[in-house]
Write a structure and sequence with these properties.
alpha+beta, seven-stranded mixed sheet, five-stranded mixed sheet, 11 helices, 18 strands
């Protein structure tokens, strides 16, 4: 698939000082106590400050995203969505780099449908505080970042992954309209960054599944297979935050009580959608957080908030067909499911791997390399079925 063709207003030249003025203003408003409290919740995370090898890159990302979000604030999309919303490419030229915003109007509409204010989005991703880095257990060569408030997740992608994502974007948006309580990660933006005349780097922004992080005790990345699915846990007392894998989860169970049937049905709906896109190798991210006594039970934290999750969305199906559920009255409610004693953070991520010739050959090689064992590179139909079966076997 060819890269998206440039839409109107391709080149803008914003003030290069704009983002830095915003950063200075934001820092001035944050007191010492606020910053100390903020750092207490960052166990295992590392600020990308001066001297870090990625500091210059993240500063460019921050300044570029501040200016890009300003465009959507000054010129919000109006009227009905159009094909151009999904194909527009806006390039903003800065002093030392240029930042491209791909399908900007489509993502601006999606952010609005989630009730996310552009001002909050700009403040979190702009130069108001350093991005955070964590020790990733992923085998990919991608770079991973969190916004300073840990609300948003940024990940670098290869060009072909971005092309696949943008090709699927209209159907992805339609799926979220049909199923506003979907487990799919909420994609919020796709961008390119080029320094001088160098090669473009691509990255995506999404809502972090693991937010708010305060009391999360365990994190997992589940693919429903066994090859390369073990992570050596951090030593006891270590501040490292590791995302563990399938084999680390052996012997554990997800106790959801009456909400189990919702999860099983939503997994079927979401994986069927990914199967239709011919996508595989996605993960179910999962984290545990023990509920306080006053948070347990349907009379306390659980409030039926369908209107919140469907805000700004015109549903294409009858309400009873949407698999709605009880949402906790908390930030990031779409990725949170409360059981009798535990809160679970759940989300399907990494939706860009297409089952083409490359993956078919990899499947053949792994079949010979790992006879009788389960691995991630299988057909989308088998992948979807296996992950649903894993969830069914590990929940009660």
């Amino acid at each position: 698939m060819a890269a998206p063709s440039p839409g109107p207003h391709e080149v803008l030249t914003p003030s290069p000082e704009a983002g830095h003025r915003a950063a200075t203003s934001s820092s001035g408003r944050r007191g010492l106590l606020w910053r100390l409290r903020d750092k207490q919740t960052r166990l295992g995370l590392f600020e990308i400050g001066p001297g870090h090898e990625l500091h210059q890159l993240t500063c460019m990302m921050q300044a570029g995203l501040w200016a890009a979000t300003q465009v959507s604030m000054d010129h919000p999309p109006t009227g009905l969505p159009t094909e151009e919303d999904f194909s527009e490419v806006l390039t903003q030229v800065h002093e030392d780099f240029e930042l491209g915003t791909l399908a900007g109007p489509a993502f601006a509409r999606l952010r609005r449908s989630l009730g996310l204010a552009e001002e909050d989005y700009q403040a979190a991703l702009g130069p108001g505080g350093p991005y955070l880095q964590f020790l990733s257990t992923s085998k990919s060569k991608a770079s991973f970042f969190l916004s300073h408030d840990q609300r948003f997740f940024l990940k670098t992608l290869r060009r072909r992954e971005v092309q696949a994502l943008l090709a699927h974007l209209p159907r992805y948006v339609q799926h979220l309209q049909r199923h506003p309580h979907s487990l799919l990660a909420r994609l919020l933006g796709v961008h390119s960054l080029r320094v001088a005349r160098g090669k473009k780097k691509y990255f995506i922004i999404m809502q972090s599944v693991f937010y708010p992080t305060g009391r999360i005790s365990e994190r997992y990345d589940i693919k429903g297979c066994e090859v390369s699915r073990w992570v050596e846990p951090a030593p006891e007392g270590s501040p490292l935050v590791l995302v563990l894998k399938d084999l680390n989860f052996q012997g554990k169970i997800i106790n959801l009580g009456p909400q189990r049937s919702w999860l099983l049905h939503q997994m079927e709906l979401d994986t069927a959608f990914l199967r239709e896109l011919n996508v595989l190798d996605y993960s179910l991210l999962m984290a545990f957080q023990r509920l306080h006594e006053d948070e347990q039970g349907p009379g306390n934290s659980l409030i039926f908030r369908t209107a919140r999750s469907m805000r700004g969305v015109q549903s294409l199906e009858e309400p009873e067909a949407q698999n709605r559920r009880l949402l906790p009255d908390t930030p990031n409610a779409l990725h949170i499911l409360d059981g009798p004693e535990q809160r679970y953070f759940l989300g399907l991520v990494d939706l860009t791997t297409v089952y083409g010739l490359r993956k078919r050959l990899e499947h053949l090689w792994k079949t010979l390399r790992y006879p009788g064992r389960t691995f991630s590179t299988v057909s989308p139909t088998r992948y979807a079925r296996r992950l649903c079966q894993w969830v069914e076997a590990h929940t009660e």
